[in-house]
Amino acid sequence: MLSLLLLAIPPAYRDSVGHAVRSTVLYPVLAMQHGASDRAGRYADASRLRAERDSLASYLVGQSNLAAENRELRALLGFRPRLTYSFVPAEADRVSGPGSDGTLQLSVGSGDGVKPDAPLVTAEGLVGKVSRLGDHDALAIDWTRDGFAVAVMTVDGETYGIANPAKDPHGEQVLALTPVAFHTVPDTGSIVVTSGDGGLFPRGIPVGKVIGQGKQAGGWQRTYYIRPMVNPAQMAHVLVLGDPQPGRSDQDLAAAWGVRLMQTQVADTTARAVAPDAATPMAPVRPQSAPPAARPRLRPRPRQVDPTPELPGRPVFPGQPRVPPGFQPPARP
Amino acid sequence: MTEGTRWKFLVFVAALVVLHFVLRVGLGLGFLAPDLLVIALLLASRRLRPGTAAALGFFLGLLEGSVNDFVFGRASLALALLGYLGSRSREWLAGDDPLTLVAYFFAGTLLYSLVLFILLAAAGAGGSLMALLIPALLASLYAAAVGLGASTLYRTLA
């Protein structure tokens, strides 16, 4: 009967009864409920904030990658016209997994014109070389890979040697230039480029800068550390070099990187000749002769300016008046 | 369920009721927690006279309706009816063996759900029968298992 009475009473009384029960008997339970919901809200807020922070962090990381990639691509775009060798642009993804350190997966292969053992370069310098060639993909090794070796020289032509991956005393991944003749001391900071010896890497590709002397190789030889021009993190976009372009008179690759090889200006040729690491023969020194007399400058030919440049197919020279001063166009009938 | 003194049994039933509200309301577990209110009533009604059991059911239903305004009054009616029937069940359901207890808890919880559904349906808020049956069956199984565990615990402690 009481239950039926509860069902029958008006809502206002029902609320009063319920409120009385909630504020007395069930008060501890409801207080506990408020505390639990507050805690749940705090945890939910923390989770949401953490999720938002993670999303923002991942967005920022993605943006920084885009910016770096943009810089790389811009550098490559400006670098391409200077190259005197044919090349194939490629995307390089680092291969992950045990034993794959220093290995890159290239997006191009023999079907795209890539040749075996082709060098990889960027706008900064040498990256590595192709190691396994597929039809439309390839595996390459960069300079950090054990077993990588490149014949190098300083730009002044004084020091020759082989650069191999090594770690400097600080644990930094660098290249070790060895063997260097004991009497040859390359300056710290001097640029090291490929020497072209062995025929694998063309002459003149920047490899790195000398950062100091390494441990003694023993005997009459020294070892020098080279900090490579190309950081392993900058190898996402590379150019795979091909053959020299026919018809280009300037085949010096170093010029493409703005590096000037000074080998022909070496004064002490005797030292070069007896150095054990002097693998590249000296170019014969041409006798200095009097410079030819300057040719008289020709007067510039007067340029014809069309008085009616508005007509299609007529040339218009920028920076010059479209109609010569004082010219009166003929009156049309 | 004849073991133990009266006050021990009273404390046990009260603990079940408190635990029901702590789990379902205080901690917000909702239907993840078993319906200990029905279990407490079913256990108590086996020891009480029908009128007292119905009064207990009414009181417990009042508590339930206070925290869930949707079933206010209806829970009291359903639990009062359940308490009454539970008390009368001693006449035709003798014994406290586990199988009997499981069947008792299962049938009692299912009956409570059905009565509550009918009362809600009479007010136009019951929903479909299929939407009731599957959750009610699962809740009844859950309550039966927990009721059996609670009875066993009480026998051990008393």
SSE blueprint and pairings:
The complex is a heterodimer of chains A (333) and B (158).
Chain A lengths: L1 H7 L2 H13 L3 H53 L5 E10 L8 E4 L12 E3 L4 E8 L4 E5 L7 E5 L5 E8 L5 E9 L9 E4 L11 E8 L7 E8 L8 E8 L24 H6 L59
Antiparallel strand pairs in A: 1-2, 1-12, 2-5, 3-4, 3-12, 4-5, 6-7, 6-9, 7-8, 8-11, 9-10, 10-11
Chain B lengths: L5 H21 L9 H10 L4 H18 L6 H15 L9 H25 L6 H29 L1
Helix pairs in contact in B: 1-2, 2-3, 2-4, 2-6, 3-4, 4-5, 5-6
Structural notes for this entry:
The complex is a heterodimer of chains A (333) and B (158). Chain A is of the alpha+beta class and 333 residues long. Chain A has four helices and twelve strands, in the order H-H-H-E-E-E-E-E-E-E-E-E-E-E-E-H. Chain A has a six-stranded antiparallel barrel. In chain A, 24% of the residues are buried. In chain B, helix 2 runs parallel beside helix 4, helix 2 crosses helix 6 and helix 3 packs antiparallel against helix 4. The radius of gyration of chain B is 15 Å and the shape is globular. Chain B has six helices and no strands. Chain B has one domain. Helix content of chain B is 75%, strand content 0%. With 158 residues, chain B is an all-alpha fold. Chains A and B meet through helix 1, helix 2 and helix 3 of A and helix 1, helix 3 and helix 4 of B.
